Amino acid sequence: MWLAVAAAALAQTAPPLLAARWLAPGADPVRALAYAPSECLARPTDPDAALAVEVGRAAFRTPLLLGGQAARAGLSCEACHRSGRGNPDFAFPGISGPPGTADVTHSLFSTRRGNGVHDPRPIPDLSGPAADLKVARTPDASALKTFTHGLVVEEFDGRAPPQPVMDGLVAYVRALDPAACPTEAVAPVRLAGYMDDARRAFAAADAMAGRGEPDTAAFLILAARSRLALIDERYAAFPGERARLAGAARRLGPIAEALRARDPAAPTDLRRWIADSHALERRLAAREPKSLFDPSHLAAAYGRRLPR
Length: 308
Description:
Layout: H1 2-12, H2 29-34, E1 35-37, H3 47-60, H4 68-72, H5 77-80, E2 101-102, E3 121-122, H6 134-137, H7 142-155, H8 163-175, E4 186-188, H9 191-210, H10 214-232, H11 239-260, H12 266-287, H13 295-301
Antiparallel strand pairs: 1-4, 2-3
Protein name: Cytochrome c domain-containing protein
Keywords: Heme, Iron, Metal-binding, Signal
Organism: Phenylobacterium terrae
């Protein structure tokens, strides 16, 4: 019953962008949705370590990782930890207390760890000081591996992903470092950024397929497709562009299945998709100034007026 009420409440106030559904009342949607914290990622120089980080980065950004109601609501690790940071504007109905908190032991998210107590906790910045993230910063990664597995499988009722995905998540979180933060604290959310996220996931998928990890490769293809969904919702006023996006996204399902089946033609099909995506991006970029990537159009969608 409670779940139905919460779902109805979300549906009645469904805004143009999915992420707005868990914005705190009174939060500025333009500031929260047109801009994002800068990612503080220290990329490893070792190729194997760098690939693990890229696998984890893609998994961190997709709802595919989590299970149960969290996944159905469209939540990913990034929903709470934007760019691997915190999210002071996060407020999910029934799950949060003050903005920037979440109760991950709520029975809505977890049938295993639901404790019947409303005890939301502050969402940590995963790029924060070592003293605040002892599990992530210990030299031995085993504690973080155990914590991450429990978070996915127990706190969110997810199905355990392929082991390289779990290992990648650990590698990604450990690569987040306050010393790697860019000078700019925030950056605009742009089409190019989402497309870059997708292509990085595709490159990781190609590499994992070459290493004999077809299930991980398929997971990464579908993770990348979820970034296309975030682009799609920003082009609500352009049905032609959305149709092209949808067509491109449909091609990814068969590629993922072919990778999983170890079809030798699958890597070539993936590289062809990547090559074709540049033309798609150019077409979308032409409309970007009038899409919901643009702060002024985003403000209009939420009935706001930008300051002059």
